[in-house]
Design goal:
- The protein is mainly α and 234 residues long.
- It is 84% helix and 0% strand.
- The chain is elongated, with a radius of gyration of 19 Å.
- The protein has nine helices and no strands.
- The longest helix has 35 residues, at 47-81.
- It has one domain (2-230).
């Protein structure tokens, strides 16, 4: 585990050094967090329900998207610049390298998701001039389910970026993130924008996140150092 955290710290440091990347992520979170506040205000008769909906769907979507942005730094850019070869020559296993990178991407992306949740709740409370907070089940969702989904999405993107060549990556990565966001949006439309987030719904999403993580962790076994090297740009 120590080796994994060494890789994770390295990835976090690289992300923090990339000012353009950070500015883009922060701007994305602030803008979407701010423009979501009116939705709570409009539903002044029952703002807590709308707040829960935003905490459940929007915070998750933005967290996954930030994970997608940071994954480009952790996986694809290192392949483009050939930096990944240094890690491949280390005694770390491919699973440790992958897990360390995913951890290093998930942590800052999750911080962005938490910031979104705070902006929405604080902004809505300030405008309504009364405190409204997320329900206990949505708080659990934000604390446990969202980081699990961010890790699953980042892990899948990272797996694809290590496995495939540069051209295939550009197409597939966009397809993965858009597919995940579509599933989240479609689920929201099916359930309905005013349906209360219940504990069974929370349990279902947690099981889905756990299943995705287990599947992707299993897929990593198919990564091969030689194949990764052959997919590096010349």
């Amino acid at each position: 585990m120590r080796e994994v955290m060494v890789v994770a710290r390295r990835e976090i440091q690289q992300i923090l050094r990339s000012k353009n990347l950070l500015i883009s992520a922060v701007a994305f979170v602030v803008v979407f967090g701010a423009i979501s506040t009116p939705a709570v205000i409009i539903a002044a008769d029952n703002p807590a329900v709308i707040l829960d909906q935003l905490g459940f769907y929007l915070v998750l979507t933005l967290g996954i998207f930030c994970g997608y942005i940071f994954s480009g730094q952790a996986f694809l850019r290192e392949k483009t610049e050939g930096v990944i070869e240094t890690l491949l020559c280390s005694p770390l296993s491919l699973r440790q390298i992958w897990l360390g990178k995913v951890t290093g991407v998930t942590i800052p992306a999750y911080v962005m998701a938490l910031a979104t949740a705070v902006i929405i709740a604080a902004g809505s409370s300030a405008i309504l001039e009364r405190t409204i907070i997320y329900s206990p089940q949505v708080i659990v969702h934000i604390l446990i389910v969202i980081p699990a989904f961010i890790a699953a999405a980042s892990g899948l993107i990272g797996f694809a970026q290590l496995l495939l060549g540069m051209r295939e990556n550009q197409i597939l990565n966009f397809g993965i993130i858009m597919g995940l966001i579509f599933v989240i949006s479609f689920t929201r439309e099916v359930i309905g924008p005013t349906v209360e987030i219940t504990w069974p719904v929370l349990l279902g999403t947690l099981l889905v996140a756990g299943a995705l993580l287990a599947l992707i962790f299993w897929l990593v076994r198919f990564l091969d150092r030689e194949r990764i090297v052959t997919t590096l740009p010349e």
